[in-house]
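May I ask you for just one protein sequence along with its C-alpha cells in two labelled lines?

_____
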Amino acid sequence: MRANVVVVEDDPLIANHIGRGVASHDELSLVATVGSLAEARALLDRPVDLFILDLGLPDGNGIDLVEEIRARGGLEPKILILSVLGDQETVLAAVLAGADGYLLKDNDSLDIGQQASDALVGGAPLSPSIAAYVLRHLRAQQRQAKLEDEDPLLSPREIELLQLLARGYSNRRAAENLGLSPHTINDHVKSIYRKLRVSSRGEAMVRAFRSGLLHL
C-alpha cells in the first residue's frame, strides 16, 4: 500500500519539483499539494502518512502546524521540513516541536522522494550542514553542563508547563490545559527561560532534556 503524502509549499515551481520527486517512488502517493497553513489544516482529518512542509508560508510559520499535529495525538503522520531557513533557533524549534527530518532547499540534486521514504520508515533525514550544526550544538551543551554545579530549580508548575511545551503545545493551548490565563503562562515561560539561562523554546527543550527535567 502506498503512503499518502501531502506537500505544503507556496512556491509553485518548488511544489511541482517536490511532487515529481514523490511521484517517482512507487511506495509514495501524492494526495494533495497546498500552499498555506489553512489549506494544510483542512487535511488534518484525512489519512496522511507524511507532510513535506515548508516553514515560510503566507499565513504563518510551518512550525505552528508541526505543533498542532503533534498535539492531536493518535496515529501521527511523519513530518519532513523542507526550508531555506537553517538558523539555530528555527532548526531546533522545528525538531523539538516534532519534525522527523529537516532538509534545506539549497541542494538541486536532493532526492526528495528517497528522503520521504526514509522518513516514513523511521529515518531522520537531515541536510549535512544541519546535521553538523546539531552535533556541534549538542557538544557545546554538553561542555556547558560540565561547567554548571547544579540543575536549575523549576517549580512544579513550571515543570508541568515545560512538559506541555515539549509535547508541542502552544502557549495558548497550554494555558487552556492548565486552567491559567495566557498572561500567567507568559510569566511562567519567562521564568523558565531565566532559570534555564536560554532565550528560546528550542534551547529550553535541549537544556531541560539534558538536565533530566524532561524525559523522552
